[in-house]
Amino acid sequence: MNLASPNVTLLTEQQLVGSLVELMQQEQDLLIKADAEGLAALMPHKSELVQQLANLAGERHKALGAAGFAASESGMEPWLAASGAPDVRAQWQQLLGLTAQAKELNRVNGMLINKQLAHTRAALGALQTPGEAPEAGVYGPGGQTIGGGPSKRFVVG
After folding, report:
1. Which of 19, 57, 64, 118 is the most buried (most CB within 10 A)?
2. Counting beta carbons within 10 angstroms of the beta carbon of residue 24, is it exposed (0 to 12), middle (13 to 18) or buried (19 or more)?
3. Which stretch of 14-23, 58-67, 82-91, 146-155 has the lowest confidence by average pLDDT?
4. What is the DSSP letter of 141?
5. For the chain, domain boundaries
6. Does domain 10-131 have CATH number 1.10.3710.10?
7. CA 136 – CA 128 distance, rounded (Å)
8. How many angstroms separate the CA atoms of 39 and 41, rounded?
9. Are 57 and 92 in contact (CB under 8 A)?
10. How confident is the model at residue 75, as a pLDDT?
11. Res 121: pLDDT
12. What is the C-alpha to C-alpha distance for residues 95 and 21, in angstroms, rounded to an integer?
């Protein structure tokens, strides 16, 4: 089996990571807006891009291994040094830059998700009766607790 050179996938990887960065920026906007429907529509495309990128990286790793270098990201620098191709090094550096941008967007989006999750949990906690409390109490006009028992009403919002 004849394997391609490790640089064959670089341009396609750059395009896909660029598309992923754009998608993650859209994801960030949707997270800020708390647009669950928009996020749900975005996720299949994001998953597809990530899978395509994993496949291309796998092809590059196989080519690196076949060329006698480490079959991983760590094998790319030694291969680039041996190949002596400055244009390929520039492609690799651009891919690394786009990947760093995607990682940062992923980090920020994760923080936004955690913030939204904490807010949702707090809202749910405020609506629920504590499990150890026999009755849900509210304060009456005199400041005394009035036991109301668990509420059978639904909150619509």
Report:
1. 64
2. buried
3. 146-155
4. T
5. 10-131
6. no
7. 9
8. 5
9. no
10. 95
11. 87
12. 12
